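Q: What does the assembled structure look like for these inputs?
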Amino acid sequence: QAVVTQEPSVTVSPGGTVTLTCGSSTGAVTSGHYPYWFQQKPGQAPRTLIFDTNDKHSWTPARFSGSLLGGKAALTLSGAQPEDEADYYCFLFYDGDGVFGGGTKLTVL
Amino acid sequence: EVQLVESGGGLVKPGGSLRLTCAVSGFTLSGNHMTWVRQASGKGLEWISFMSGVTNKISYADSVKGRFTMSRDNGKNSVYLQMNSLRAEDTALYYCLGSGSASRWGQGTPVTVSS
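A:
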């Protein structure tokens, strides 16, 4: 089974920009993996920020964007806010099988 | 508005069974892929099962293959997860998730496997 890798922890300054990445042990991440990005705050259910690489939900703040970057899926946060401090999980599909990354703990400090 | 409501969790002894239900509204199951996910306390998200809304193909994580069965009833707008031969390591909060624009999360249903 594929392994999906994320940075364990990342720190960003308020108002700063940060990119979280999501790599695959099988090679380059493509749109065919339908990358998802989920945000989870302590004690809450996850919520979907990005689906299908770069599509947003109505509730996704405009400062979040998804892309493919250097063979990985990427979540970019432009203008970090204190409320963005959370765990972020990426998720990839491999022909019906799904794999989550281990999550990135984002600290806004 | 898309909504997913999980139910059916509870306390069960090792070796026991449970059937989880995911009732969806705001979209139709037909043509939408559905996924079950779980999260043990203090741990990350774990993919459990996937059902294609187009081909009806179902896939399972190795950790549950042969013990869990995913199904759906389009008429009832519900997805199910039959869990048999439960183990302590199946203890978690279980979520269902739609695909694409239907990828909203419910609050999950807790499953505790303990003697």
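The radius of gyration of chain A is 13 Å.
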